[in-house]
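Need tokens for this chain, all 399 residues.
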Amino acid sequence: MERRTFLKNTGLLTGGVLISNSLIASPPAAGPVKIAVIGCGDRGTGIMHILDSMPDLFQITAICDVLDFRLAAAQKINKTGTYKSYNDYRKLLDDKEVEAVIVAVPLHMHFPIAVDVINSGRHLYLEKTMTYNIEQALDLVKLMSGRSNQILQVGHQYRYSPLYYRVREMIDKGYLGKITQIDCRWDRNGNWRRPVPDPSLERAINWRMYKAYSGGLVAELLSHQIDFINWAFDTHPQEFFATGGIDVFKDGRETYDNVQVMLRYPEQGMICNFGAMCGNAHDGYLFKIKGTLGMVSLLTDQGMFYPEKKLLNEKGTVDGVTGATRIVWNKEGGTPILPEPTKDGTWYAFKDFYKKIQNKELPDSNVFTGARTAISVHLANQALYSKKISNWDNNYILK
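Here are the structure tokens for all 399 residues:
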């Protein structure tokens, strides 16, 4: 089910684009993978800091960004020397030392750069959302066909978090009962704007605010929660309802600063509500999965399980759910899902990226699952901006 294949109007059944075996990246010898970072904004440098704490697994050898001041800031992460530095990612791909590449650029550039990285034979860690639109998602699946030695991992890191793995297990084993409602939020109180040293750089720096470059709040934030639901239930939404607007910051932006998306999963009998705004930060991040036997309430690094009253007498079941040796209830009747908060999900994701490169295995967050979420995000945005219901086209996939 995870290795769903995309077809029909993509021509996938005629075969993928292949390259010679000599160009396909092979697992490195013992020691760290030599990796390059394309895109040195907030996300790219955030990943660099995490990799800097994993010297046995990864060695950053090169960085690339079109903005010189970002390259200069990224160089400061290196405490022992200087990274090779490029303004043109194509020149970086000419560097034979690079074994793997991280792509953390504006969303509209994910696909063209990913194609060039794949065709260069490197392993690829491609930030979420995988692609800007549906056609690109389908084409990327087609391009990766037959490349079993080459790893493409998509940056939906919840698939690697011990907390979210435990919640997925709880869902799979029926501990929550019949799940019919899921409520998600990712709120902030701020305009999402970055300082612009030169007006000509407005769209290059504040790309998230412009439709030609960005999928807005749905792609940048809510895609993580959408991806987890796709993963946990091995499914995707069928119906997409949405509304929103530029309700807080009247500053020339095009992507909405206040959105609400409702997705319907008829096979599961489930409705999921996803909301994000830039006008209030009180709730921040919320993720509540509600079933007939109990509910989980999640942050990014910790979560609580709240059993329904009819489950309270079944202490053994609750022990099985939480993994705790002793049940400790808080004043609201909940108990921690894990005893301690987890690390940043990106840390777990890169630990697994290294493992998958070594073992030539399909990542949990791969081109197939990445495409399923990218299509979901695109259809949600289509409903959001058209003010019309969007529907999943069942010709996208072959189970």
